[in-house]
Structure to design on (430 residues):
């Protein structure tokens, strides 16, 4: 046996032995700290881990995440508007192509579903889509914040907070209702009001989808034996998939319902 | 509130998203949409221009094809006319030539006939004169002398 082969064999055996020892220690279980029930309840309700907002009120970490995401997006938009947009030309580069693709996607979604004022609803679903997508990916970065109790918490996705999801659902429904009333008159308003369950379904769909990812990730992290490698796959899979799926679902629903509620007046006018 | 729903926080979330929507709408969506629309207008215009040019080119091709066809028809017509004229002239020339040839032949024949007749006539008149001379000699001289004279005269006449 050559010297090289000997070294390789020793390294392989050492890794196996270390892995076995680690396995034996890790499978001993977690018997200290918060229980899984407490952790998951807190992940859902955020009753304990409150964060002070400028010392005025105590808010859920999700709201801080929302402010961070919005701040990031607005600053990015301003930078893009000042430095990139003036350089855009008829032969798009990669970045221009990406941005135009995003704008074009939401615009075509609005145009397909709504014949009345598609520009406004296109802008709304563009903003909503970008917000949902970026805010869902936000939790992957694991930014830390300090609670009023002095604990450190990882900032969650803003829409994993029930208040954020309700706000998004209600705002989207308001856009549909107002758009329906302005464009479709009383008929449009009634049409929008018939779908009174829409804000609830939109809110809880977002909340449930994003929370499920957060809960599964929490669950996987809680047990030491599953907290290696697996959370990366589970976390990334849930987060990225939810980011894409929820962005598409909410923007499509809003544009479809907006188009439905705004359609009536146009048909009447044609008659 | 159940599920830790907090109206104040919902309103804060709504305010946050409204500001974000306004910012993204005016700062990013509108300018990029404007760029896309302007480019689409340019593309549509270029497409319309190219379609118009293609249409014009088609019209020109059609016009030239029609002209070419009419020229071809004219050419064929003129060529046919010319061909028939040429054929008529040719047949006329041939007929003229034939007629001329016939008249030449007729003339030649007539001349030959006349010459033949003249020769025969001269031969007759010569024979006649010889006969007369012979008869005179017979009457005037001996027969042998007459024969000799006849033979001499005949020999001179044959040469």
């Amino acid at each position: 046996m050559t010297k090289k082969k000997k070294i390789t064999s020793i390294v392989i055996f050492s890794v196996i032995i270390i892995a076995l020892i680690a396995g034996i220690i890790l499978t001993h279980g977690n018997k200290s700290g918060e229980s899984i029930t407490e952790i998951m309840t807190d992940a859902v309700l955020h009753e304990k881990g409150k964060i002070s907002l400028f010392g005025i009120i105590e808010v859920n970490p999700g709201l801080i995440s929302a402010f961070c995401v919005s701040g990031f997006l607005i600053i990015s938009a301003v930078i893009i508007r000042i430095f990139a947009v003036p350089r855009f030309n008829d032969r798009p580069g990669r970045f221009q192509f990406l941005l135009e693709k995003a704008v074009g996607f939401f615009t075509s979604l609005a145009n397909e579903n709504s014949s009345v004022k598609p520009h406004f609803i296109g802008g709304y679903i563009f903003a909503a889509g970008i917000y949902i997508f970026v805010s869902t990916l936000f939790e992957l970065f694991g930014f830390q914040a300090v609670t009023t109790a002095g604990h450190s918490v990882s900032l969650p996705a803003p829409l994993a907070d029930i208040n954020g999801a309700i706000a998004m659902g209600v705002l989207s429904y308001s856009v549909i209702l107002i758009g329906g009333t302005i464009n479709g008159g009383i008929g449009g308003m009634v049409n929008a009001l018939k779908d009174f369950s829409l804000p609830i379904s939109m809110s809880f769909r977002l909340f449930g989808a994003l929370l499920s990812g957060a809960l599964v990730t929490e669950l996987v992290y809680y047990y030491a034996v599953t907290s290696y490698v697996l959370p990366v796959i589970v976390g990334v899979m849930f987060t990225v998939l939810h980011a894409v799926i929820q962005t598409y679902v909410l923007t499509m629903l809003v544009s479809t319902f907006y188009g439905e509620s705004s359609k009536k007046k146009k048909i009447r006018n044609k008659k | 509130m159940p599920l830790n729903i907090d109206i104040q926080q919902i309103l804060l979330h709504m305010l946050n998203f409204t500001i974000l929507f306004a910012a993204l709408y005016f700062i990013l969506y509108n300018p990029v949409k404007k760029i896309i629309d302007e480019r689409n207008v340019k593309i549509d215009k270029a497409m319309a221009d190219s379609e118009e040019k293609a249409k014009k080119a088609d019209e020109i091709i059609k016009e030239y094809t029609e002209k070419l066809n009419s020229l071809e028809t004219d050419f064929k017509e003129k060529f046919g006319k010319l061909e028939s004229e040429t054929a008529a002239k040719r047949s006329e020339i041939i007929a003229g030539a034939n007629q001329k040839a016939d008249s030449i032949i007729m003339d030649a024949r007539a001349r030959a006939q006349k010459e033949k007749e003249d020769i025969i006539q001269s031969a007759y008149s010569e024979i006649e004169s010889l006969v007369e001379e012979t008869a005179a000699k017979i009457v005037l001289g001996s027969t042998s002398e007459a024969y000799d004279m006849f033979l001499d005269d005949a020999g001179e006449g044959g040469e």
Remarks:
- The first helix of chain B runs from residue 7 to 140.
- Chain B touches chain A at residues 3-6, 8-14, 16-21, 23-25, 27-33, 35-36, 39, 42 (CB under 8 Å).
- Chain B has a mean pLDDT of 88.
